[in-house]
Amino acid sequence: DKNPDILFVEFAVNDRNRGADAAKDMEGIVRMCLNSPHQPCVVFVISAQTDFSLIASMAARYKTIADYYNVGFIDFAGYLRPLVENGTYIWDGTQTGSLTNDGTHPNTAGHKVYGDYLIDRLKNDGENVLKKLTYKAEALSSYVHGEPKMVAHNDPAVKYSGDGWISSDGTSIPSDSRVLGCFIKFPRFESGYHEFKTYEAM
């Protein structure tokens, strides 16, 4: 759906070492939504990972963006960390009863904890989760996000080849490349998952 009412943007643990670059991309997603004719509520979701300190550092960058644009914030990692540290939950795939099998992805029990926390936040703190975005003329970063563009997962013009993006003219674009000013939602896997990529206006 290109006109969602609510957009949950998950912090991917794959971005945990990308620092300012990842924050810049997250801000680009928000600015894309600000320019959408059907402006959705945007909620940042922070996933847990074994290195809670590293996740907290990245989450702090995203929280700055969330506060600036009035974006909702669901911090699963921040919620779980004290409960893991005091022994209420286990987040270690090597241990029986853990909420994760690999230290990153929640298992069935982990998804239930995530779900229960999300429902509780929506029920008891919904006004601070589902909020109207605040328009800002200037981005927090000096990055120029260009004109937003959203590409559907089944758009034949852009395809993911396995080791790079293929543009509409057949030109191969390495996955870490930057092309002229657009913000695109790309297909990432055949199963329907997506990732956002921001490209620099040069």
Structure explained in plain terms:
This protein starts with 5 loop residues before the first strand and ends with a strand. Helix content is 31%, strand content 17%. α1 (19-34) packs parallel to α2 (52-69). β1 (6-11), α1 (19-34) and β2 form a beta-alpha-beta unit. The protein has 202 residues and is α/β, with parallel strands linked by helices. The strands form three sheets. Strands 1-2-3 form a three-stranded parallel beta sheet. Strands 4-8-9 form a three-stranded mixed beta sheet, covered by helices on one side. It has a three-stranded antiparallel beta sheet with strand order 5-6-7, with no helix packed on it. It is built from four helices and nine strands.
Give the arrangement of secondary structure elements.
Elements: E1 6-11, H1 19-34, E2 41-46, H2 52-69, E3 72-75, H3 76-85, H4 108-125, E4 147-148, E5 159-160, E6 165-166, E7 172-173, E8 182-187, E9 194-198
Parallel strand pairs: 1-2, 2-3, 4-8
Antiparallel strand pairs: 5-6, 6-7, 8-9
Number of strands: 9
Q: Tell me the structural class.
A: alpha/beta
Largest sheet: 3 strands, parallel
Helical percentage: 25-40%
Q: TL;DR?
A:
The chain is built from 4 helices and 9 strands; from the N terminus they run βαβαβααββββββ. It has helices at residues 19-34, 52-69, 76-85, 108-125; strands at residues 6-11, 41-46, 72-75, 147-148, 159-160, 165-166, 172-173, 182-187, 194-198. The model is unreliable at 172-202 (pLDDT under 50).
